[in-house]
Amino acid sequence: MCRILAKQHVDDPDVPTRPDGVDGYAERVQIALILHRVELEKSLCETDDYLNEMPDILAVFDLDDIPHYSSLCRWENEYRMRELRRSAEQAGWSGEAAIDASGFQRDQTSYHYRDRANYSFQSMKTTTLIDVNSLAIKDVHFTTQKAWDGHIGIRVFRQNAEDLRVLSADAKYSWSDLREECRSNSARPLIKHREQTPL
């Protein structure tokens, strides 16, 4: 069922399973594996283990081996962003947007996850670009690095510059390069100026 639904979702369902060589997978395969993982209600690592032990299921997807779970994670993020943008288009986009960030603190890292994935993080910054009229989310940026808001802001703006007329932000995004980038793309920057010296 997941394979059939995935074929209905793509433009060209007859593309080979690995059209781009040994590292590439067809879009229908990516979608089918994501749907199957959701149906199994398993984590990425558990899905990887489960499918590696089930060669008959791999044959249904025309696969000899399962992609690494990090590939599954990347595919899921890409399709989430695609659906997010599609939802924003349906809600309506006025061209007037606000950008802001929030943080997520992880005080106790899962040692089991860190050992299996060879990766850990203590905090994550989430930056969202939101239409001020419809409140539709246009774009989301995630990072576990200590990135400055101005650098993230200019990156998010560049990805959405053609759809923006006004960009609102607080003083954390006060950066001359970001303002100039907005003006060069015919967008008005409404960014509070940061005071560099005490009044």
Structure description:
This protein is an alpha/beta fold. The protein folds into two domains: about 1-75, no CATH class; about 90-190, Nucleotidyltransferase, domain 5 (2-Layer Sandwich). Helix content is about 45%, strand content about 15%. It is built from eight helices and five strands, in the order αααααβαββαβαβ. About 20% of the residues are buried.
Task: Tell me briefly what this model is.
This protein is of the alpha/beta class and 199 residues long. 44% of the residues lie in helices and 17% in strands.
Largest beta sheet: what is the strand line-up? 3-2-1-4-5
Radius of gyration, rounded?
21 Å
Q: Which structural class best describes the helix and strand composition? A: alpha/beta
Proportion in β-strands:
15-25%
Task: Fill in the keyword field for this structure.
5-stranded mixed β-sheet, elongated, alpha/beta, 199 residues, Nucleotidyltransferase, domain 5
Which helices and strands, and how do they pair?
Layout lengths: L1 H8 L17 H14 L3 H9 L2 H6 L8 H23 L4 E10 L5 H7 L5 E9 L5 E7 L5 H12 L5 E4 L6 H9 L3 E4 L8
Parallel strand pairs: 1-4, 4-5
Antiparallel strand pairs: 1-2, 2-3
Helix pairs in contact: 1-2, 2-5, 3-5, 7-8
